[in-house]
Write a structure and sequence with these properties.
The complex is a heterodimer of chains A (793) and B (349).
Chain A: H1 2-15, H2 17-50, E1 62-65, H3 73-82, E2 86-95, E3 100-106, H4 118-121, E4 135-139, E5 152-156, E6 164-168, H5 169-176, E7 184-187, E8 202-205, H6 210-249, H7 251-259, H8 264-309, H9 321-348, H10 359-362, H11 364-388, H12 392-424, H13 428-479, E9 484-487, H14 491-503, E10 507-518, E11 521-528, H15 532-537, E12 540-543, H16 547-552, E13 557-560, H17 561-567, E14 581-585, E15 593-598, H18 599-605, E16 613-617, H19 621-631, E17 639-641, H20 642-695, H21 700-742, H22 752-778, H23 782-791
Parallel strand pairs in A: 3-6, 4-5, 11-15, 13-14
Antiparallel strand pairs in A: 1-7, 1-8, 2-3, 2-7, 4-6, 9-16, 9-17, 10-11, 10-16, 12-14, 13-15
Chain B: H1 4-15, E1 58-68, E2 74-85, E3 98-107, E4 112-120, E5 126-129, E6 133-137, E7 140-144, E8 149-155, E9 160-167, E10 172-173, E11 179-181, E12 188-205, E13 208-223, E14 231-241, E15 246-254, E16 260-266, E17 272-275, E18 281-290, E19 293-303, E20 308-314, E21 320-321, E22 327-336, E23 340-346
Antiparallel strand pairs in B: 1-2, 1-13, 2-3, 3-4, 5-6, 6-7, 7-8, 8-9, 9-12, 10-12, 11-12, 12-13, 14-15, 14-23, 15-16, 16-17, 18-19, 19-20, 20-22, 21-22, 22-23
The chains are: A alpha+beta (793), B mainly beta (349).
Chain lengths: 793, 349
């Protein structure tokens, strides 16, 4: 009986291969998008974990000499012989004709795993002489030729940032022509029992500022994950549609099987098994597709993250169980969600219920109202969450309420729009057109919901990524406004260097700060010189009039957004430091509070603090840095040219857009497919409605054109509705989820031109989806249409 | 026991990809081009030979100890310093071709603590000086005016020990007066031991400090190409029987031919008898699941000419050395024709 029941159930798919393809394709594409995005994220994260950047010590603590002088090898040995597990790093700049390379020498025997990148431990070609003759230097492929004639063996490594090189410390010593010097020591994460205290002539420093950027990166990942989830939701709508349709069409089979004595429980079990197997098949296909998507996009994502974060994503994809298992799990869960309604209906189906699939549309109006009511409930819930909820989970819950609610609203909104359109037209054909469109709506609503979500997701994500980019470049401008950054070891050196820079025509902006605590939490107070650099570049979120003049006059302070949010401060409030808050600036990626006052006020308040870091504004950064390096013996990180870094970061964002664009096209294709399936399914059912119109004199061609027009109309309305939804989505991502996750809010920028382009893409997708059903209609043999009348009961 | 160098080679090949201006670094089975090779009839010179021999490719100072506390609980302790050379010389600075590797472990009946250290020569982070004797890597060290009285120190992130060693007998020499053959084709090493150490000191474990006493065995060995290419793994036994006799025996397992065994019988006064290939043999009696592998932690070891037929059983079967190249090394209890304590090392499982 079970076997017979199963074969009866499966025969449906044999007779409807298109429907089967739909189900599998929808699920597979949903899984593909989800697992593709997951794969990219997992890969990037795994790369960070295993390969935090050597250049910055991989997030590990560092030891330097307290007096700023380089360490000696004997001091390294002394610390090791005390038990300190530290590893030496020698850094310096190698000058070539027209550029310099930042060379990092490491000691692989003692380098902690956490600081050793994958790329260091596993060269691309293991046979390529792990122990090749000569000194091996890892460089970006573009920089390889520079080393010709330096008596080294170059290993091109595309995962290295351009302008940097890594080699053994012995080779570094030879190339840099230093003797007995170590720049810093990386401290291993675990240390032996009974470790003596660090002698006072050394200082241990935190991993450095890279965490700021890491937080921005983390935010990027979070948003990508959200996008993956949205894509999946789009796919689930397709599956829901396909499962629901198959259920409707198989009512007769169910009834017969039940009447033949198949227990309800067995029948439901069979259906569950059937769908489970389909889910696994489709999930498998989806994971494979996802892998391909990820493999195609990863190089761009790798480049993006490399620019943001350093040289630590290899650009090679590995099959990680975490994401392919999650892909299969999502496929199963998605099918379960999509099928639950159908199974519940089946459980309640009276044994001899009348077999009337078309009755579905009769109840449509009721269903649409019911869904709209659910949507209102969801919106209300979302509002409650937005108002009272806290944490990341609340942010995502709000997102879910918003999206599902909006999707549920769609049928009612569309049908209202169509009703309105029908009222505006009084010609017979037009009235029939609008009425017929409304009648078709229930069959298409799932697909249209998918389209709505796809377009909204695309608008949301485009807005998010673009806002992210503007913010990040703004952040770079704010933080790295000067062309060059100069760090001196001593006050005397600082005076010498700045005097020289000024004589070369540069403007010197001291960077001077003092750590303090505000509201019990660590914060920093900065003194800044009044300069156009700050006036032009700093992103002020709130400000009193003439703010820069007032800050320069010492009338108050600027604070960063974190401090403002944490301590609930606004312009006009008083700070614990005794300064009045004059403005709040965005400070993306930083967790500590910041206060900014004028340098005069700062000098008065902290006379003991002397500036050792300086920003240099100059017309010709390359020339000035050359002059400085020629004149002074500058250490590795003493002089940083930010214009190169900025240009590189911007180039990287361009690549991010290609990723986003590719994902946009993919999601819209999925939604387009949903529409195609919906239309194809309706096509066979609708013949009885079209035949009379045809018989009244409308040509098949005309009918087909009307079908196309209808699809476009529905897509336009959906598209128009998707814009506010997408913007709301972007707002939640930027202003709620991000704030919950990272404590700062990404400002939202609007890009109407992008939305227009997306709208056009959506229309294109709808048009392509409607083309084939319309074509088929235009080619329907007249006898088929005639048969409608002979079959009429 | 020279097969331990195998560890080192494999480890270096894994862990040192970018490293060290490295000249071509061959495995142990390859030619010892440029390196010195052990010769029959070598006359050892002390204290000089306690120190390092940079002209040979590999060398070690390998100490194992069977300990017990006041309640009679058995412990094992290991302190090992390996030297591996990429060129037959020493140079000052980072350019040194001498690489050093330290392993330390403490085994209790229920736990096994392991730590590893790495260093390169030339800068003083690790090395061995013969007179006064000092072998060290980082803060770990084995030091004394000579090899008679020494202090032994090591620590990991979850254990530490500080021990005193006192030699109660002479050095003994394996094979032909310290020329120890490792295969039928004549590969060999220099190999001597001090198996008569008494050891006392304090183990610092997560539960707190434990005062212990016991016996320790130091192996000294150096060579340049001691292994045949197909000699892939080994089982090494050191046994201290009640009554004061001792036995060292090993099996080199050969993937392409018969296994190679050797043994040294050590009288309480230090007189030795060396046994050629085949005289000693060992067979597994029971396996344990260790770190996901089947490891024989119960053995039968036989040396018929001395009437030895004993069962060797691990005190803690989980004595897995989870180091760069993992292996099994731990204390054992001996029963059967002779009773006693000892150490077992197994690689290649």
């Amino acid at each position: 009986m079970i076997r017979l029941g199963l074969s009866a159930l499966l025969s449906h798919w044999r007779r409807n291969p298109w429907q089967f393809a739909t189900l599998i394709a929808g699920l597979a594409l949903a899984t593909a998008l989800w697992s593709g995005v997951q794969a990219i994220n997992a890969e990037a994260r795994a790369s960070y974990d295993s390969a935090a950047d050597v250049l910055s010590g991989g997030g590990l603590q560092q030891i330097r000499r307290a007096d700023g002088a380089p360490l000696q090898v004997s001091e390294y040995v002394e610390l090791r012989r005390m038990g300190w597990q530290v590893s030496p790093v020698l850094e310096g700049r190698l000058a070539f004709d027209d550029q310099t390379i930042r060379l990092t020498g490491i000691e692989p025997l003692t380098l902690p795993q956490a600081a050793a990148g994958d790329t260091l431990v596993q060269p691309a070609d293991p046979d390529d002489g792990l122990f090749a003759e000569g000194d091996v230097v890892f460089v970006h492929p573009d920089d390889g030729p520079l080393f010709d004639g330096r008596a080294v063996t170059v290993r091109p490594d595309a995962s290295r940032p351009p302008g940097t090189a890594v080699t053994d410390i012995a080779t570094a010593e030879r190339l840099l022509e230093t003797r007995d010097e170590i720049t810093r020591l990386i401290v291993a994460p675990t240390q032996p029992l009974g470790l003596p205290a660090l002698p006072p002539r050394y200082v241990m420093t935190a991993p450095g500022t890279q965490n700021d950027v890491a937080r921005l990166t983390e935010s990027f990942h979070l948003n990508l994950t959200a996008f993956g989830l949205l894509s999946f939701a789009v796919g689930i709508f397709i599956v829901y549609g396909a499962v629901g349709l198959a259920f409707e069409q198989r009512r007769g089979v169910f009834r017969t099987l039940r009447a033949l004595g198949l227990p309800l429980r067995t029948l439901m079990g069979l259906l569950a098994v059937e769908l489970g197997v389909f889910a696994l098949i489709a999930g498998g296909i989806g994971v494979t597709l996802g892998y391909l998507i990820a493999a195609a996009l990863l190089p761009d994502v790798a480049a993006t993250l490399r620019g943001l974060y350093g040289a630590d994503i290899t650009g090679q994809l590995q099959l990680r169980p975490a994401w392919w298992l999650s892909g299969l799990g999502m496929a199963l869960a998605g099918t379960a969600i999509a099928a639950t309604a159908a199974l519940i209906k089946l459980a309640r189906l009276p044994l001899l219920s009348f077999n009337h699939p078309r009755a579905m549309s009769m109840h449509a109006a009721g269903a649409a109202r019911w869904m709209a009511a659910v949507a209102l409930g969801l919106f209300a819930l979302g509002a409650v969450i937005a108002w009272g909820g806290q944490g990341l989970f609340a942010g995502f819950a709000l997102l879910a309420c918003l999206l599902i609610g909006a999707a549920f609203c769609l049928p009612l909104l569309l049908s209202s729009a169509l009703l309105l359109a029908g009222r505006l037209h009084r010609s017979v054909l037009a009235e029939w057109f609008w009425a017929d469109s409304r009648q078709q709506l229930p069959g298409l609503s799932m697909a249209l919901m998918a389209l709505l979500l796809a377009m909204a997701a695309n608008i949301g994500v485009s807005t998010m990524v673009s806002s992210f980019r503007l913010t990040f470049t703004g952040y770079l401008d704010q933080r790295l406004a000067s062309e060059l950054y100069l760090t001196a070891q001593t006050f005397e050196e600082a005076q010498e260097l700045t005097a020289f820079a000024q004589s070369e025509g540069a403007t010197v902006l001291p960077i001077i700060w003092q750590d303090l605590r505000i509201g019990g939490l660590p914060a920093e107070i900065y003194g800044i010189r009044d300069h156009v650099t700050y006036r032009e570049n700093w992103p002020l979120l709130a400000a009193v009039p003439d703010i820069w003049d007032r800050v320069a006059r010492g009338e108050g302070a600027l604070i960063n957004e974190q401090l403002a949010r944490r301590n609930d401060l606004a312009p006009g409030d008083m700070l614990e430091t005794g300064d009045r808050v004059l403005g709040v600036y965005g400070d993306y990626g930083n967790s500590a509070g910041q206060v900014v006052i004028s340098d005069a006020l700062f000098a008065q308040r902290y006379p003991e603090v002397q500036a050792l870091r300086f920003g240099l504004r100059t017309e010709d950064a390359a020339r000035l840095s050359e002059r400085l390096e020629a004149r002074f013996d500058l250490t590795e990180d003493a002089l940083i040219n930010q214009s190169e870094l900025k240009a590189f970061s911007l180039a990287v964002f361009e690549r991010t857009f290609s990723v986003t664009a590719a994902l946009n096209v993919l999601t819209l294709s999925v939604a387009g497919l949903a529409l195609l399936i919906g239309l194809l399914t309706l096509a066979s059912l609708r013949l009885p409605q079209l035949a009379p119109v045809w018989a009244l004199g409308l040509t098949r061609r005309h009918l087909a054109t009307l079908e196309l027009a209808r699809a476009l109309c529905l897509a336009v309305v959906t598209g128009v509705l998707a814009v506010p939804l997408g913007l709301a989505l972007a707002w939640v991502l930027l202003a709620v989820v991000n704030v919950e996750a990272f404590g700062w809010r990404l400002p939202m920028f609007l890009f109407p031109l992008d939305y227009l382009k997306l709208g056009a893409l959506t229309l294109l997708a709808a048009f392509l989806a409607a083309l084939w059903p319309a074509f088929r209609l235009a080619r329907t043999p007249p006898d088929q249409l005639l048969r409608v009348f002979s079959n009429e009961r | 026991m020279n097969v331990r160098s195998f560890l080192l080679c494999a480890f270096m090949a894994l862990a040192l990809p970018t490293v060290v201006a490295a000249q071509s670094f061959a495995g142990l089975g390859s030619d010892a081009e440029g390196f010195a090779t052990p010769e029959r009839g070598y006359v050892f010179q002390f204290p000089k030979d306690h120190g390092a021999h940079p002209a040979y490719r590999i060398e070690w100072w390998y100490l194992t100890a069977n300990l017990q506390d006041a309640e009679g609980t058995a412990y094992g302790l290991q302190w090992t310093l390996f030297r591996s050379a990429m060129a037959p010389e020493e140079r000052a600075g980072w350019d040194s071709p001498q690489l050093w590797l330290g392993h330390a472990a403490v085994t209790t009946p229920t736990a096994h603590f392991v730590a590893e250290r790495r260093a390169r020569g030339g800068i003083g982070q690790a090395g061995v000086i013969a007179d006064p004797f000092e072998a060290w890597i980082d803060e770990w060290h084995m030091t004394g005016a000579d090899m008679q009285q020494m202090r032994l120190v090591a620590a990991g992130d979850d254990f530490a020990y500080d021990m005193q060693l006192s030699a109660k007998g002479p050095l003994i020499f394996h094979g032909e007066d310290g020329y120890s053959q490792k295969s039928g084709s004549g590969r060999a090493s220099y190999y001597y031991s001090q198996p008569f150490f008494e050891i006392t000191g304090i183990l610092t474990l997560p539960e707190g400090p434990v005062e212990v006493t016991g016996q320790a065995w130091l192996d000294r060995e150096w060579a340049s190409q001691p292994l045949g290419a197909s000699q892939v793994s080994w089982d090494w036994f050191s046994m201290a029987f009640e009554g004061g006799t001792r036995l060292m025996g090993f099996t080199l397992r050969d993937s392409a031919g018969p296994d190679y065994t050797a043994a040294t019988w050590i009288e309480p006064d230090g007189r030795t008898t060396a046994f050629p290939d085949g005289a000693f043999f060992a067979e597994p009696l029971g396996q344990s699941d260790v770190a996901g592998r089947d490891i024989p932690t119960r053995w039968r070891a036989v040396l018929p000419e001395k009437g030895v037929d004993v069962t060797v059983e691990a005190i803690n079967p989980q004595a897995w050395m989870a180091t760069s190249i993992p292996y099994w090394e731990g204390p054992v209890v001996i029963s059967g024709s002779h009773r006693g304590r000892g150490y077992l090392e197994m690689t290649g499982y």
